[in-house]
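Our preliminary data section would be incomplete without showing what the modeling component actually yields. Below, a chain of 161 amino acids is followed by its predicted structure, encoded as tokens that our downstream tools consume directly.
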Amino acid sequence: MAACHNAVLLSMQTYDDNFRALYRIAFRVAYRILGEQAEAEDVAQETMAKAYSRWWRIRPEAARWVSRVSANNAIDVWRKRSKQDLTAEDLVRAHDGEPIVERLALVDALSRLSRRQREVVVLRYLAGYPEADVAEILDCSVGTVKTHASRGLRTLRSTLS
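Predicted structure:
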């Protein structure tokens, strides 16, 4: 219900009115995928620039669109990064408790999910939307969200183990 109410508000507001809330979504999703503040900020800025140029088309679904585009951009950044070997600095950061290797494995596993499973997992677990809002954002039933979340998580678990 909240997503429906938010969609109505978004349809009446300008890009500037929504920038902060949408930027927070874009940054949060990118940061959870990349684990690097600077890279997440770059992804969020790129996402918001794209949102600005498409505002009148995406406005009713802006939160969904920003979440999806931010996730896709972050995965692209990760893919470019993963083509390089881990540096000594990465290994030190991993040793200091920053889960670099685990994060890379997660992003790789996310990129292997079907588009719908990835959307559900990203919106539900990375962007933090409740199931009902994810269902509304993706225009499907809560049962469908639960099914895709369950299958996506099962695939992630098997891929990561």
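Residues 123 and 129 are 6 Å apart (CA to CA). The radius of gyration is 16 Å. Preliminary results of this kind motivate Aim 1 of the renewal.
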